[in-house]
Structure formats: structure tokens, C-alpha cells
From TrEMBL, chains A, B:
Keyword Transcription regulation carried by entry: yes
Gene Ontology MF term list: DNA-binding transcription factor activity; transcription cis-regulatory region binding
PANTHER family in alphabetical order: HTH-TYPE TRANSCRIPTIONAL REGULATOR GALS, LACI-RELATED TRANSCRIPTIONAL REPRESSOR
Name of the molecule in the record: LacI family transcriptional regulator
Alphabetized UniProt keyword annotations: DNA-binding, Transcription, Transcription regulation
CDD domains according to UniProt: HTH_LacI (cd01392), PBP1_LacI_sugar_binding-like (cd06267)
Signal peptide: none
Domain HTH lacI-type: 6-60
DNA sequence: ATTTATAATCCAATCGATTGTATTATGAAT
DNA sequence: ATTCATAATACAATCGATTGGATTATAAAT
């Protein structure tokens, strides 16, 4: 219990001045003369004073805390986004509470409750795969707590988002496969309640159309994109009545699962089937063959979303205008999709 | 600013009772009769009352917040430990602030400062590779804030730790390589300020001794165990005047870097050189060949450390007895170390 | 009915910082 | 020296919940 408990009142008593002056001095108010400020600051330093944020925040009814909800922190995109969030938040005097929904709506709901109970000043949110309704976000709206979606957003009105151009990325990935000579390209898609997967799919379709490739509905396989789903998808596509020669997977994990299985079956990658993933997980550069994928600027997404959120917090509830920022993804070509004939061309 | 701002005083006013009674009712004190409790609880529910933790915590001078410092959340051990921490903490009414030192002492120092400023009730800590002195932990000691090391601990007196048996793991890994017929085993070690690397090294040495294998000092290569270090280490070991036939790396990342390089050089794994890593990163199961490694029970480490920390917080500063809990690691045999002659035996 | 013991509730101070208003100090102008 | 404007500081309420002590209500005992 001997926590150093220096308060502004201690400093005030010692210097025989009022605590309000101490408070103002420590906040660099111009209502205190420089001489007194110096005296107070020196004494504060000497005593090892640290402001009690609880008291300060109670008075100001602000917590200087942001909530971050992600499906799981172990995913590359999210861990790098979190790094960006933390850097920006700390720099601007905010703390961050990080929570994982583990892709479960139920947990996401609870987390929102916890964040409300903790009276966070704002929330950054990347929704779970199970998030099909948004009732749990009502509490945030009601209490006028600003929130910004990043990456995995929702199509509800008046929200701010920081996204990447999933449509473009889907298009680029598919175009790349077409450029490698693929004619029958399977797309591993994710739950269609998530806009990102819808958009990646749209990009895929659009590329097929532009390059005059016939679209077949059964070439789209929807799953939760776990590793095991990749394996299952691969089994499925081998049973299709077409000779599949390309896969565009909406994430790396499923692509890797598929590749593992296909390799076991003696199928050569990229010669028989070229594969493109999504997210540029660190593992994608290390597997055999290395995986062509879409790099998402995670750190920048985190930074941007945080900056946007904090600006909304500062603006206050007055005119919470929604804003959507879309960042550019980037195709990384690796061995899993580069056909021999291509490299032979150089 | 229309945040729902129901306070105990609102409830008190409406029910024409005192706010202290409301407070006691909401805390289920036995100084309030059940009838009044029911009335108060019903009204609180009706109004959507939520306790203001700032005020409550200020009064109780507790924050119900734990700080967690890890080198990086993207590492498998840490992300799974954090999952364990969160589960336990939330269950016991605590929040968690997660911070990454990114292996930098300077950042670790700042983080401790931030956590102090936020008056966390306790800290869970896995130190950075650069942490060679512990001055920055003095602040915690002075203020009697309990802290528990997990995995990467420090050899300073009277600390609580939750660790795995790195010595045993090092021994098991090395013994396994010896069992595969390896005679010249290189050990990739990490910074020796960290006990974990010292202990893994000790286990290695001990296994060599017991199996009567000559120890050579130049078979120990120390680095920061990044992927690039693994590559460099591999180059080094090819220049050694012995025919190396085994590698025991103190983490998976460096092992993988080495394997990539060795494969490029046409060296067969495990036939020419068998490799064992450490940590069971998800990637280790997916690379080619899959990597034999040591699995650390990350989730359990996180749970155990949190339980220990919270129990210390509850005990108070009175008799903060230190305690060290050591969990068992587990060797996972995969292709990178299983020699043909072995499988031939079956 | 009155006393007494105990249960139930109320009062008021407190946690530490902030902030609008009131007061005093300072110095310039007359 | 006195007045006045302004700068500097002090006072006191406030944020919302908690808690020891005081007071009142209730019921049991005489």
C-alpha cells in the first residue's frame, strides 16, 4: 500500500499554494506565471509526481482508451494493423485495449459490452466471419461512441472505414493467373456476409469477363478459409468436370491447405495448377513453392484507421461525418503461380 | 454528449433513497434488504445503468487492469499466451493492456513507464532480447506493483515466474538428434542474457555429455535468431572443419532460415543434416520438410501466469512471496529430423 | 406500552484532478 | 497616493462511486 501517492495537493501544501494552480501549471495553462510553473514543475519532478489518470479522466469524462476488436491477433494483417494502431494511439495519448473475437459473433457481442462498460472513447473494429447482424453495434451508436471499421467492414450506413481495394486485388490476382495461361480458375471465397470476400469475388468475376473467360458457378467454392477448408476445397475441385489449372484463394491459409493436399496427390504447382493467395502471411514466402499473394498494408491500415478514429473523437458528436479511406493492395509474384513458359521468356 | 449518463444518484433520486444504499445494493452488500435490492436492481436495469469504472476505481484506487509486455504479438508462443491471459483476466474482472517491446530495451522501458502512468494493478512480462539490466523494473518494485515473468524471465531475486523447462526441452531435442545418428550437432543459441537460451544450451550440453559426444565450442552459434540469422548461421556451419549432421536451433524461425539456405545449397534434410527447432510456430508444420520442434503450452502459460499474478494482487503487498511454476514442453517429431534408417526400422 | 437490540437506511467525507468564478496582487496611469 | 485594469492565484463545486459512522425504522422482549 506504500504506492507513491504524490498528488497535486501534496505539491500545493508544500509550496503553500492552491492545488488548482498546481493543476493548471502541470497542464501548462497560461493562467499561471512562468515562475510559478517552474517552481511547481521542479517540485513535481523532485517528488516523482505522476498524474492520476483515473481522477483526471473521471473529471473530464474521457478515458483516453480505444478498443480494438479483431478476429485473431495471430493473423499477419491484424498483428501488423495493431502495431500501427498502437504506435499512433500512444503518440496521441491514447491507450489501446485489444480484443479477439476468434471469429465468433457471440464473443464479439460480449467484447462490445466490455468496451462499453469500460467507456472507451472509440472503437476500431474488424468483424468476425459470423457477424451477420449488427445489433451489438447499436450500443456504440446510442452512446455516440465513434467507431471505425478496418479491413473487415459492414455495409451499414454512415460508417467510417479504412479498407483496401479488395475488388482491385481480386481483379489483379485473377488477371495474373490468366496471364499465366490459366483457363479454368477456381476461386476460394469466404463468408458472403463480409464485404471483403464479396469484393474479391467481384474482382475475380470481372477479370474473367474482361478476358473473355467463361464463368462457371461451380468454380466458386465458399468456406471459412481455414487450412482444413483449403484441403477440402482442393478435394472438391479435383472432382470437378473441368481440368482446373488455377486457384485464386481469398486468403493464404486456405491456399496453403490446398497446396499441401494437391502436392500429396502428385499435382505440380504451378505447372498443373497455379495458385494465388491473399494477405501475404509471412509463411507464404517460406512454403514450397513460395506463394504468390496480395500484400495488404496492415501497418498503414492501422495507422490510418486510428488517426481517423481519433479525429472523430475530437470532433465530438456534433457532426460525425462518415469517411471511407481505401488503400492500395499489391500483388506479390512468387513461384506458386509463375509458369515455366513465363520465366522461359526472359 | 448525450452519452447515457445514468448514475447511482439518478436511481437514488427516482426511488427517493440515498445513493449510498443504491451503491451497496448494486454491490450486493448485506447492509441492504433484499426487497430494496430488487427494487434498485430493477430500476437500474430499466434505466440501462452501467457502473462508472473510473469513479469506482478512483475511490478504490485500483484499476482492474493488467499490463502485458511481450517482444511481439505475432510470435506463436506470445499470441497463444495472450489468449490465455485474456481469458483468465476477463473472467476475473480484469482488463488487459497488451504492449510489444519489439525486442527493444528502450521500448520496454517506455512501456513500463506507460503502464505505471496508467496505474495497472499488475504486470506480465516476457523480456526483450536486449534486456540486460533491470533498472526499468525498479519502478514496479517501488510502487509494490506485482509482476510475473513468463517464458522469457530474468534472474533477479524474488520474482515470480511461469516458465517451461527449457533445460529439459534442450536435452530432449538434442537427445532426439543423437538418436537419429547425429554426431556433430550445431546449436543455434540466442542472446545469453536470456535464461531460456542459457537453459536450452545447458540441455544441449548435458545431452552431449551423457551420450559421450565430444563437445566443441565452435558448434555453438549465437545470434538473435531471426530468419536472416538462420541463413548466416547455416553459411557459417558449412565452413566448419567438421561434417555437420544435425542442428538444434533455439527457435523455429532461425531453423527455417537455415533450412532454406541449406536446401538451396543442395544439402538434403534430414539425410545430410537433421534439424530441430523450438516453439512449434504454425509454419513449422507446413514447410518442406516439416520441422521437428518443441511445443510450448502457450495458452496454459498465459493462464497460469495470470492466475498467479492476480492472486498476488489480491494478497496485497503484505507478503508477496515469489513463486516459480515450470511447465513441461513437448517434442514434436516431424520430417526434418527423422532419418530414413529410422523409418526403415518400422 | 416501553425499552432494547438489531436491521435498514442515510449522511457526509473521500478518491485526485479539473474548472468557472471570486478574490487578491501587481503595476500602470492619473 | 489613489484609481483602475489586468494578471495571478485562491475558492469551491464537480466528476460518480464508495464507506465508516450516525440515525431511524423495525421487531422482539419486558
Amino acid at each position: 500500500m506504500e504506492n507513491n501517492k504524490i498528488t497535486i495537493h501534496d505539491i500545493a501544501r508544500i509550496l503553500k499554494i492552491d492545488s488548482s494552480t498546481v493543476s493548471r501549471a502541470l497542464n501548462d495553462s497560461d493562467r499561471v506565471t512562468q515562475k510559478t510553473k517552474d517552481k511547481i514543475l521542479a517540485k513535481a519532478q523532485e517528488l516523482g509526481y505522476q498524474r492520476n489518470h483515473l481522477a483526471s479522466n473521471l473529471r473530464k469524462s474521457k478515458t483516453y482508451t480505444l478498443g480494438v476488436i479483431v478476429p485473431r491477433i495471430s493473423r499477419h494483417l491484424f498483428s501488423s494493423a495493431i502495431a500501427g494502431v498502437e504506435e499512433t494511439a500512444y503518440k496521441m495519448g491514447y491507450n489501446v485495449i485489444i480484443c479477439q473475437s476468434l471469429e465468433q459473433l457471440e464473443r464479439e457481442r460480449n467484447i462490445v459490452g466490455t468496451l462499453l462498460a469500460n467507456r472507451v472513447d472509440g472503437v476500431l473494429l474488424s468483424v468476425s466471419m459470423e457477424t451477420i447482424n449488427y445489433d451489438h453495434l447499436q450500443g456504440l451508436k446510442q452512446r455516440n461512441i465513434p467507431f471505425v471499421f478496418f479491413d473487415r467492414h459492414c455495409n451499414i450506413s454512415d460508417n467510417s472505414n479504412v479498407l483496401i481495394d479488395d475488388y482491385q486485388a481480386g481483379f489483379d490476382a485473377t488477371e495474373h493467373l490468366i496471364g499465366q495461361g490459366c483457363k479454368h480458375i477456381v476461386h476460394f471465397s469466404g463468408p458472403q456476409n463480409l464485404e471483403i470476400y464479396k469484393n474479391r469475388l467481384k474482382g475475380y468475376l470481372s477479370a474473367l469477363q474482361i478476358y473473355d473467360i467463361e464463368f462457371r458457378k461451380d468454380l466458386i467454392i465458399e468456406s471459412r478459409l481455414m487450412e482444413i477448408d483449403g484441403v477440402e476445397n482442393a478435394k472438391l475441385l479435383l472432382e470437378l468436370p473441368y481440368k482446373i489449372d488455377g486457384i485464386f484463394s481469398a486468403n493464404d491459409i486456405a491456399a496453403i491447405g490446398a497446396m499441401q493436399y494437391l502436392k500429396q496427390q502428385g499435382i505440380r504447382i504451378p505447372e498443373d495448377i497455379a495458385v494465388v493467395g491473399f494477405s501475404n502471411e509471412p509463411i507464404s514466402a517460406l512454403i514450397e513453392p513460395s506463394l504468390t499473394t496480395i500484400d495488404q498494408p496492415g501497418f498503414k491500415i492501422g495507422k490510418t484507421a486510428t488517426t481517423l478514429l481519433i479525429s472523430q473523437i475530437h470532433e465530438g458528436a456534433t457532426k460525425m461525418k462518415s469517411e471511407t479511406i481505401i488503400l492500395k493492395p499489391n500483388l506479390i509474384e512468387r513461384k506458386s503461380s509463375l509458369r515455366k513458359f513465363e520465366s522461359g521468356n526472359y
